[in-house]
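Appendix B. Raw example, untouched.
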Amino acid sequence: MKDNEAVSLRKGTVVDSIVQTLADDIVSGQLMPGTKLDAQAMAERFGVSRTPIRETFGHLAAMGLVTHRPNRGVVVATLSPESLTDLYEAMAELEASLARLAALRMNSRQREALEHLHNESIHLVRDGTSDQYNRFNHTFHTLIFEAARSPQLQQLAETTRTRLAPFRRAQFRLNNRLSKSWEEHDAIVRAILAGDADGVARLMRAHVQTVSAMSAEFIAEHQHRPTAASVDEPVYRKADR
């Protein structure tokens, strides 16, 4: 690997990590709507220059988690339940279509890989963390996306999934959600292995609808209305440290 490629890889990894941390802070209510995010303070918090912070803000804006306001900078956006429900509705239909196609088009190697991945994931339910299960979950759904062999549908699904990533990650922190998710996956895997295209479409749609409900439940438990003192105040200022 060339030196510039290594630097790019490290930079991408750093940005991804900061995006995940700040996205989790926003979804969990630690950074409330209206809070101004100061680039310099964030750079100091994460021990990086302003360049990856600006890139991070771009990713968060694409997710709808922050907005760029003239003369006010980057501000944590208000999470609209209606917008989130709309995104999940689209995600449910996209994933249902991809699962249906996967059941029809998946080859034997892909079926074995999906079954093996699913069976191995049971230990994450017993012994793993929500972050570990979330990484598995991403791989599980990606295998189904790829097996569908529909590049356009996959691209739409991956774009929507990126916007929903922090919310899908958050729902795994709810009690018993990991075990319920595994059970839902188990039914999906069995339907795919049986070649039940219509059945797996129904199961995948219901699965994503459940994820939507669980995400809304997490937000309801953790989001609070911003106080007058919190709105438009920069966070992590030097005076606060």
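End of appendix B.
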